[in-house]
Structure formats: C-alpha cells, structure tokens
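Bug #77: duplicate submission created two jobs. Keeping one. Sequence:
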Amino acid sequence: MTKPEIEFQEGPAPTDLVIKDLVIGDGAEAVPGGKVEVHYVGVEYDTGEEFDSSWGRGESIEFPLRGLIKGWQDGIPGMKVGGRRQLTIPPELAYGPAGAGHRLSGKTLVFIIDLLDASEG
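Kept job's structure:
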C-alpha cells in the first residue's frame, strides 16, 4: 500500500464520528480494547493540513486501542486486516474543546488508517 491522499471535504465539519471504509480487509478483525498495528495519516478538517503521519516516519505503529483518542477507540473496531478506513472525528472524540491544552484541541480531525495487524490485546 502507498500513503493515502485525504480529499478535502466541503461544508461544515460533522458533529459525530463519521466512518467510511475505503478498502474492506479480509484478515483478522480489530476488537474494542484490542491491539492494532496501523499506518495512518491525519489532517485537520478545516485546512486539510497534515499534522501527523506514520508514513512520514517510514514505519507502522502498534498500540492498544484503549490508550487512543475516543474516535479511534470507536472507529477502528470492526475493521479487518488489509482494510483502509477514513475517520472524521469531532473535537469531543479527539483532543477536546478549544483551550483543552493540546495543539489539536477544538479541531475536527480526519484520519485514513490502514490496518496491518489486529489482536485481542
């Protein structure tokens, strides 16, 4: 797989988590509270500006879902290995309202996630 391009979305940011499967995988399924290995890229909804990318570091990352922002905890389970999913995550499921102390607080975030591996954790 190659690094995905995130298309700029028109209109106001959604107020709920939006899950859009771009590629349906056929491997093991990610489960709530499980462990995942992913490649991902994240951009700000309003500007389309990239703020983070595992592709940029040249390596995937592995972590337990329970340690991640709520939008990932809710948006990744059900994905299957080999899949690519886009998550559009409102601030309350990401880094909180503006002024919450994170540089991405108050921002709606868009991630494209490639699921490389999944386990029960």
